[in-house]
Structure formats: structure tokens, C-alpha cells
Amino acid sequence: MNDLIIRNVRPVGHEGLVDIAVKDGLIGAIGPGLPAEGPELPGDGALLISGFVESHIHLDKACILDRCRNETGTLEGAIASVSAAKRQFTQDDVYRRGRKVLEKAIVQGTNAMRTHVEMDPGIGLIGFEAILKLKRDFAWALDLQICVFPQEGLTNYPGTQDLLEDALGKGADLLGGCPYTDTDPREQIAILFGMAKRFDVDLDFHLDFDLDPAWRHLDEIARQTVAHGWQGRVAIGHVTKLSALARPRLMEAVTLLKQTGIALTVLPSTDLFLMGRGSDRLVPRGVAPAHVFHEHGVCCTVATNNVLNPFTPYGDCSLSRMANLYANVHQLGTEDELKACFDMVTSAPRRLINQERSIAAGEEATFVALPAASGMQVVSEIVRPLWGMKRGRMSFEQAPARIFAP
Question: Could you report how far apart the first and last alpha carbons of the chain are, in Å?
């Protein structure tokens, strides 16, 4: 006997409506008209996906607008504001704010996430330990991957490297970098690649976060990736400089990322908020054209980055909304273009975090139901999910809106 049969759903990758039998947390069978053995859940023709994947977010510094502001609206202003505020962070405080964000993300259909956590002697392991506890406490609904990184520099902040190594030994999943805040960016990159090699972990860099195309750290990241044999294990985020490149130079960057297996993550809300602050008209968008890289086979993702803090004073953790925002910024409207935006918040980030999953017999019964017929519709209409399931157990449900006509 099955634990549950989900009736009449449209799994991504399948033609038409099918039933799904769930047993012991796994998909037992998929097909039309499965025998009624166990409780039933009506699918009502919903699109069934493995879930949205948040590939770049900062849980440790979310929801802090009550205690700090970005007076200049710039990247430097955001870093300085949070640096001052985090001196008062406690483990309980970080846990409470992170929990609030995770609960928002879960009801928006996110069931896998990579969060970046700041490490330096000023904050110590406080943020990391809080997020590690959240990872354990929310495993019933969401797979949380922890990336520790030196937001305020590595070579210029003695003691930071020891903390990063300590966190990697205590359960951090991967290592991040932020060369543009370091007094010696190239040395930071070299140190981090060496650490990644020693601990056998992936790398995820905040990179090239301005609009000056005259210089960049991307080339050094690519060089070190090949030198260490880390192809397919490096990601770069923001990279707003890419939005300032003429087409020929942009295509050179596409080739570089494709050849080195470097993934690209774009954070539309933050990049729009922080970039172009020096312009009083025709303000540049500052959002890297990830869809161009995606079209040429580079692993590209769209993500939230920050929620209600000086870097991004917005956020409801909806990745369908973030994909829609990205589509608006880059004026994408065809079926293929909107499907690419959908892929960049579902299948592509799942590859990035090394958690590829399909809806097939024998696979984990983890999915999200959306009242839509296609990924294109999800992005164009910012479709909200109906319910989600993790390993055969319901993780959330929200009723669709009702209209009471006279």
C-alpha cells in the first residue's frame, strides 16, 4: 500500500497529466490512472517541479533594517553599515532572523539553498553556528548549504583565515571569496584556492561588483581554476562588470566561463539597487546578462542575495518574482527566453549546488506544485506555489485566492 497517491499533475519532463505514488519518502510509480492504494491528493493539473533553488543568499545579515541603514545607497555604504551592526549580533539573533527568511522561502517553494556566511574576528563563529543550527532544524523542509567567506577581506584582516578553516572543519560545505574588499585581491584568491584544494570543497566568489570594465578579477579566477583543476567547482556572483561590456568582449567572457567550467550567479534586486548610483539620468541597470551565458552552455543562476538589509531593502524570497524581475531588466519575452529564466531558478542552481534531481520512480518524493502549465507561465505571471513536499511529507500548503462575486 502506498503512503499517498497524487492525482493529475504535470511533472516537468513528462507529457500530459499523470498520477504519482509515494511510498517511504520515495516516488513508487508514475503514470496515468494508478490504482487507488492509499490516501489521495488531488493535483488539479498543477505543474510539478523538484522545487526552486536559492543559489545565493545571506541569512546571517537578513532583516536588519531596524538597526542600520545604507545612507549612501552604495556597495561601500552597505558593507560599512553591516560591519558596524554585526558587532552586536548574537547567535540567537542570527538564528531568529534566519528562521524568518527560511519560513518565507519555504512557502515560496524553495527547498534547497546556498547561504553565504561572513567570517572575521569581529563576528567570530557566531553567525556560522546559528546557521549550522538552522540547517539541522529545517532539514525537514529544505537542504541548506553553507558557504563561509571573508566579506571584509582576508589578507588585511588577521585571524580570518583561521576562522574559515575552523568553520570548514565544523561542517561548512564550501568556501567563498570577496577579492574586491581585500588590500591584496590576487593573494586572497590564491589563498582561497589553496584552502579549497586542502579541504576538497567548491568555491563561490563575490566578484567584480562595479561598472568599470577597464579591470577585473575574473581572469585571475579563471587562471587559478585551471591551475588547480577546479573546473566545474567554482561559481562567481554579481559580476556586474559584465553588464558594461560591448558584445565582442562579452562573448569572450562567455567563452572563458564555458572553457573553465565557472558558473555565474546574478542577483537582480541587489545589483539594481546598488549599481549606477553616480548617474542622474539613463541609470545603468548593472545586471549581468546571464541568459547570454546560459544560451551558450554556462551554468547560470538567478538568486535573491539579501533580504531587508542595507544591500537590498526588499525581499519576499520568491524566486518566480526574481526570475520575472530579471526578465524585465533584460527585456525577455519569448517562450524560450522565459523558460531560460525559469531554468535559472530551478534546474541550473540544482546543478550548481550538486543536487540534481528528477521526478522519476525511485527518486526522492520532494516536489512543489504550481498552478501553471509551464515554466514560462510561472515566470511571466509570478505564480505562487500551492503546496510542497519533502521526502514524502508535506512541508507547506497555501490556499489559492478566492473571489466573492455579488
Answer: 46
Tell which phi-psi region holds residue 304, choosing left (phi > 0), alpha (psi between -120 and 50) or beta. Answer: alpha
Structure confidence by residue, pLDDT tens digits, 136-188: 999 999 999 999 999 999 999 999 999 999 999 999 999 999 999 999 999 99
Contact 395, 388 (CB under 8 A): yes
What CATH architecture is 4-50+357-397? Roll (2.30)
Q: What does the block give as the cell for 71?
A: 545612507
**Span 270-324, pLDDT tens digits:** 999 999 999 999 999 999 999 999 999 999 999 999 999 999 999 999 999 999 9
Cell of 336: 524560450
Whose grid coordinates read 518565507?
104
- What is the Cα–Cα distance from 195 to 307, expressed in whole angstroms? 29
Q: In sequence order, which residues have a C-beta less than 8 Å from that of residue 176 and are 6 or more positions away? A: 116, 147, 148, 149, 150, 203, 204, 205, 206
Q: State the CB neighbour count (10 A cutoff) for residue 26.
A: 16
Rounded to whole angstroms, how far apart are CA atoms 366 and 374? 19
> In terms of Cα–Cα distance, which of 13, 7, 8, 3 is closest to 347?
13
The grid coordinates of residue 91 equal 547567535
Secondary structure of residue 315 in the 3-state scheme: coil
Closest among 104, 105, 172 to 135, alpha carbons compared? 172
Beta bridge partners of 235: 204, 263
Bridge partners, 367 (sequence order)? 389
Residue 325's nearest CA partner among 274, 370, 266 is 266
**pTM for this model (two decimals):** 0.96
- Bridging pattern class, strands 393-397 and 143-149: unpaired
Q: Which of 59, 52, 234 is nearest to 132 (CA)?
A: 59
Q: Residue 200 is which amino acid?
A: D
Name the residue ranges covered by the structural domains of the chain. 4-50+357-397, 52-352
Neighbour count for residue 161 (Cβ, 10 Å): 17
CATH topology of domain 52-352: TIM Barrel (3.20.20)
Residue 80 corresponds to which cell in the numbers above?
A: 560599512
